[in-house]
Amino acid sequence: MGKSLDMLNGSILKKILLFFYPVFLASIFQQIYNTVDTIIIGKFVGKYALAAVGGSTGSLFNLFTGFAVGITSGASVIIAQQYGEGNNRQLSKAIQTAVIFNIILGTLFSFIVYMNAETILGFLGVPSEILSDSVLYLKVVFMGFVSSQLYNIGNSILRAVGETKKPVIYLIIACTINIILDLLFVVKFNLGVFGVAVATVIAQTFSAVLIFYELIFTNRYYKLVLKELLFDMKILKDLLLIGIPAGVQSALFSISNLTIQSSVNSLGTDYVASWTAIGKVISFYWLIIGSLGISSTTFVAQNFGAKKYDRVKKSIVECIKIALLFTTILSTLMYFFAPNILNLFVKDSEIIELGVKYLRMLAPTLALYIGFEVISGSLRGVGDAIIPSFLSLFGICFIRVIWILVVFNQNPTMENVVYCYPITWLTTTMLFIGYYLIFHPIERKIKKVGEVSRENCVN
User: Fold this and answer.
1) Do 373 and 253 touch, CB atoms closer than 8 A?
2) What is the per-residue pLDDT across 84-109, written as a single tens digit (0 to 9) for each?
3) DSSP 12-69
4) CB distance 382 to 240 below 8 Å
5) What pLDDT, on the 0 to 100 scale, is given for residue 451?
6) Partner of 208 for a Cys bridge, out of 89, 99, 147, 427, CB 3.0 to 4.6 A?
7) Residue 219 and residue 38: Cα distance in Å, rounded?
């Protein structure tokens, strides 16, 4: 297995943490792309540009990226299962199919958003004073969406086989380029929103080139041979059976957040700017829990493929323990140091005051989200993705939309925007815990694999 992390043997907690830390670090540097944009725009250009770079444009980018990353998670599960099983021929087919499909998907999303940017943002009710800058930023960023998706699928391939260090190195390099170009384009050349968008695209393209250089020129089992690229329909079907529900699940968050963002837009630019800053702060928590979800998915998939089912079950408890520890630490920091943290993103005292108020409302409730992310990640690892997506549809999307249409429209305050988050986190977590404890989905998957194995032996 070379230098890849061996997750099939040894301490479960230790192996999950060893996988988690590089994944989290990579997620941090990926998030820094937009966070640096936000800090530089907020400090050197102003609140209108800040609202244009964040707000609806950020939610839209998260919507399409979330769905696309969900698709790559399907590839990651299939690749990890084949790796755990030791089937290098199927592993190679899965990698090639995933790469081709994601190039097509990234190109399609880029075209759709670029051609319809103004219509989409107008539909979301983006304030007129920031609409032109929002359209410009969205168009430029989505011109580089294929690069972003190429990095994501390359990262998923390496993670699936336990190689987590190289993607971090590539992201650190790309992030450094992004920061330098942001300062150059915005501070020196005064290019504003256009400058940070171009810097992001260049940095993303560089990270994609680096990770595909690794895949193409490596001599290891995950080597990508361009002249032998093939598109296996059976593997694509398996990939999509896991990836589409996972993508829908991620997209549901973004769709519900777009509904919420539209409500925030109606309250005015100051609320949009403060909500943008809060989103950047909270996003670092999502990175931790999301990284744990990814770690759980990969760990479960590899051990499920290797038929080490006891390790599959125990890993869920270990991930929840890790999540509780990090959540306690971050919630405390966000609550007590909210003014200092928000000051990094914006210098307007009124916006900071608004942000502190609402960040302190959200921080103590973050633990309500843990069960949903960890359990859903584990279920993806065994290939159970359809029912979890329906649970997410109800718990996250449906309830949030109903809340906005009923509660917010009757009393349009920022408090009523904030309340819908802990309510939907708690609801969705309880749904996933109930599904896991009552229907035993992992045990059913294990039993199904055993039945298939017996049939193959008979045949």
Assistant:
1) no
2) 888 788 888 888 999 999 999 999 99
3) HHHHHHHHHHHHHHHHHHHHHHHHHHHHHHHHHT-HHHHHHHSHHHHHHHHHHHHHHH
4) no
5) 56
6) 147
7) 40
